[in-house]
Amino acid sequence: MQSQDYSLLKPAYLVRAVRAASTGLTALATAVLAACAVQPAQPADLPAVVHATAPVAWRIDAPQDAIDARAWWAQFDDPTLDALLSSVLSGNLDLQAAAERVKQAQSITTQKHAALLPQLDFTARGAYERQNTPPPLGYVKQAGAGVALSWSPDVFGGERLDLLAAQANLVGQQHALDAVRLALAADTASAYVDLRWAQAELKILQDNAAIRQRTLQLTRDRLKYGLSTQLDVARAQTQLSELQARLPRAQASIDHQLNLIAVYTGRTPESVAQLALAAPAPIPTAPAGVPQWLPSEALLRRPDVQAAYATVQQRAAEVGVARAERYPKFSLNLTDGVLASSYLGLPTLTDNLFSAALSATSPIFNAGRITADIEQSESRMRESQLNLQQTLLQALREVEDSRSDLVSTAGQTQQLHDAVASSGQALKLANQLYKGGAADFLDVLSAQQTWLADADLLNDAQRERALAAVALYRSLGGGWSKRGELVAGSSSAPATSVAQGG
Questions:
Q1: Which of 23, 348, 374, 482 pairs as cysteine with 289 (C-beta 3.0–4.6 A)?
Q2: Which pTM was predicted?
Q3: Quick check: 486 pLDDT over 60?
Q4: What does the alpha-carbon distance between residue 326 and residue 187 come to, in Å, rounded to a whole number?
Q5: Which domains are seen in the chain, by residue range?
Q6: For residue 360, with 0-12 CB atoms within 10 Å meaning exposed, 13-18 middle and 19 or more buried, which class applies?
């Protein structure tokens, strides 16, 4: 037993002693780690993978700007769309869930990093016992306090590789968040385009219904004076009824898009009135200019490609973790503290308690479990590499398809705009001639049908062009300049105005 004065051992002394021991062991372990640590698998870097997958004509350059999914739609020059996407990106529930997954990955990374460092705990205990076994001790009172340090030196790097895998997973989750944001922005923009298309469709039908209503009334008036036949009246009524039958469906399409946009904003479909989108507006006009050449930035800046490559890096680190299981594991435990004891009411005695223990375990026989884990990890890494290649191929297809669609709709829209102007003039002349008795009613019906068909085609073409632009923005992960150069966060690209048909 130590003397009574030894109970004055200061906690600061304990902390300094533990800290000194920890520092020394850390330095020693660090010197050993460089020679003993297991290395992760070494997959090819992402630019090299892109170079092996993309066409030869593509340049291989690293992207200069970070992905900004909240900028490309400004090139449509539509303030309502800008305000809508701002509301969606701040209130969408899927986006918030993706942000929570990033936080979870960050917490896992923190836990993996903490596993590399020593753990220091404060311990305390108190006990009161009655012992009747010979010799009779009666009652025993004990109380103690101290500190305990535990550490598992990562001699062969398994824990550090586990941390590397967690960090790669964090990067992947961050890119996944970017992918969700980009997809959400594109889906919202597409829904907005569909909404404006449906509103334009309803306006075209209403304008045609008004024209056919006037034609029906004119035909009835002419029937009174024997200038038309009952057959003409029946035809006019049929044409009007068929057109009016399309109005409820057009209104339903508007309601569906409003409900969809409401859900994107994180609201219930019943709150569509708060979106201020019910007033008709033109379909957003796609910016002029289409990329003529496609550098590798078109793939390197895509968040899904970056997320797929982060998965490859994670799997490569996990291969190293599995290989490290073949090597010994070490554990160090240090404790220090004070214990006070009293027997049969005698004066309390104190004692200093210190212990140090170093242990090691090494696998001898595990029935092939470690080898199977290594093979599984290597297989998962190869799978992730195949998924990356598939993601690159899918990205190439999306870029080429959306670019082709945008190019094909450029001339189509202008031609249909001219066709609507011509058919509208023809309808006006047919009505004037019919009113003056110089044209047959079938000429009026034909002119009405032609104008309606041309207006529908123009409305569809404007929709297809806007959707193709949205798809190209999404496939490129951003915008492009007038010369075809990729840009990020730029809203300076000029836009051409295309008048609404009808």
A1: 482
A2: 0.77
A3: no
A4: 49
A5: 1-35+118-151+328-361 (2.20.200), 37-115+158-326+378-487 (1.20.1600.10)
A6: exposed
